[in-house]
Design goal:
This protein has 222 residues and is mostly helical. The protein has helices at 3-22, 48-70, 79-89, 128-138, 149-171, 176-179, 209-216, and strands at 31-34, 37-40, 98-99, 104-105, 112-116, 121-125.
């Protein structure tokens, strides 16, 4: 994947984020406390719009994750192999926090590959939105209830993370986010000319984000 192609994929993600953002006009994306846990007020509401977002986001997640693996010489096809490759290469990716206008979540926190059937098979866990995508894909009529607001947000949050990782690998920085900003999704790892983020992406170094950003994007400080 070259830089031009990556920018096209990033802009595609931004278009999906805009589609999600527009749903705020007719459904509350806010939070509520339930049984001591903070959750989306209407996280379980499902619709055709959320179905479309989940299907498109999951498909793009697969494409971009495979591309990320290819950068390290790994040709993968199945989600279990994709998961193994990424989690081994980027063990801290599961700690990545994504901010939305209403909450901060860690969409990949439970992402892992487990060995089942006495070691004969491997199973991906922790990606509920991915399982919803597969349910919708294989039985659209019966699985519409999996097309929820929460799954749509989590699918796009996960895609957001993969985009930033591959962006960092290809560009060496995440400058194009400032050239082509997206709505709805943010994170604390992106330095800003005025207010620096808290740190680099979880798996990339430990130097000051403001120092790195000034080094990589000097034109913004002239």
């Amino acid at each position: 994947m070259d830089k031009t192609e990556l920018i096209q994929h990033w802009n595609y993600f931004c278009s999906l984020a805009e589609r999600l953002d527009e749903t705020k006009h007719y459904i509350d994306h806010g939070l509520i406390e339930h049984d001591g846990e903070i959750e989306l007020v209407h996280g379980k509401v499902y619709s055709d719009v959320f179905k479309q977002i989940i299907v498109l986001a999951a498909s793009e997640f697969e494409i971009m994750s495979k591309a990320l693996c290819v950068l390290h010489g790994q040709q993968v096809k199945k989600i279990v192999d994709i998961s193994d490759a990424i989690l081994n290469q980027y063990p801290k990716i599961i700690t990545f926090e994504v901010s939305t206008p209403f909450w901060i979540n860690t969409p990949l926190q439970e992402w892992r590959v487990s060995v089942v059937n006495n070691g004969n098979n491997r199973k991906v866990q922790g990606l509920d939105w991915w399982f919803a995508y597969n349910a919708i894909k294989h039985d659209e009529a019966l699985s519409i209830q999996s097309a929820t607001l929460q799954n749509a947000i989590m699918a796009l949050s996960s895609l957001y993370i993969i985009n930033l990782y591959i962006m960092h690998e290809i560009f060496g920085n995440m400058e194009i986010i400032f050239t082509f900003p997206c709505v709805y999704f943010r994170c604390k790892y992106l330095p800003h000319p005025i207010s620096s983020g808290d740190g680099l992406l979880p798996d990339f170094g430990d130097c000051s984000p403001s120092e790195k950003f000034r080094r990589d994007c000097p034109e913004l400080f002239r």
